[in-house]
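pipeline/complex-builder :: batch 7 item 3
reading input block
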Amino acid sequence: MVELKNEQVVTITSTSPFDFDSTIYKPAHFPSNDMRWEGGKRWQTMFWHDERLGLIIENKGTVKKPKILLHIYSRKELSKEFISSIGDEMGLRFNLELDLKNFYQAVKNDPLLKPIIKRFYGMRPMHHGSLYEYLIISILLQNATVRRSVSMMQSLFEHYGTLLEYGSQKLWCFWEPAALAQVLEAELRGLKVGYRAKSLIRISQTFANNEINELELRKKSNEDLEKELLKLYGVGPASTHIIMFEVFNRMDYLKHISPWEQKIYTKLFFNKDYEKELVPVNEMIRFFAQRWGKWENLAINYVWEDLWWERRNEHIPWLERLIRL
DNA sequence: CATCAGGGCCCTG
DNA sequence: CAGGGCCCTGAT
């Protein structure tokens, strides 16, 4: 375990409106021991340019006047440039520059979104981690129930990650790609990740060899980016779909809906019993494009997040059956 | 006890 | 382009 004793603090801001809790905490993401959330505060570990960091993201503002305090814990003192690069990166990952007012204007007459936007006014989509980290997660999601994905993630943390102690928390930090790149497949299979071992290793090698650059990919068009992602071993249309939205913030890329999402969407958007009648994926894709155009993924995400926040407050039997946590 | 699908993907024919 | 196989787990 590594204790991070050095603390530096920066202020970051967001366009308005900004809702802190629904942006920095996503109940739809599966739980993992690299983070902790309580109202107004999120602890999150971060592997950034060879440093293992502990972050505390703290709300000091309001929806109208956003202000976020970013506490950065590290082993040694960090340069001013390094600190500000972390602030910039978090701004991107948390979509703090996104102009939500355009979105709200575009969908202002939508009866489904109206009450949700009222409840989550200022919510942004977010993923806290890097492309590499999200690729690992998306591979763990493949062909597995949520419970199994959670246990594979924890197992990987315990074998290749680093336990950090800071801000009275102990949380796991991701490994660098090179650490997994040289592991033997049999060793990984010993951690019960199954056939995913090969994908985890090959993707780690791609990153360790610098054959892929997240910052460069950000500049690419949807089409080119999709092509680059699909080239990665173990990445298909389902993983590409979630990465395009969650990592690269593409609001207008929707080509795939997984069976699990299809069931939930059938209920949420078409108000039908998915056990009797599943709405076909192609029909869904046409429907979303026509209804919400270039904002489609954000619109869907608002409905999706609303459901998962509701699940925190009350038992939703049909959803529980689908999650199998 | 056996069988099967789960927030897919690769490879083969 | 369809379909088999893949690791493991809990539900049936």
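note: Strands of chain A lie at 2-3, 6-12, 35-38, 41-48, 51-59, 68-74, 162-166, 169-173.
queue -> next item
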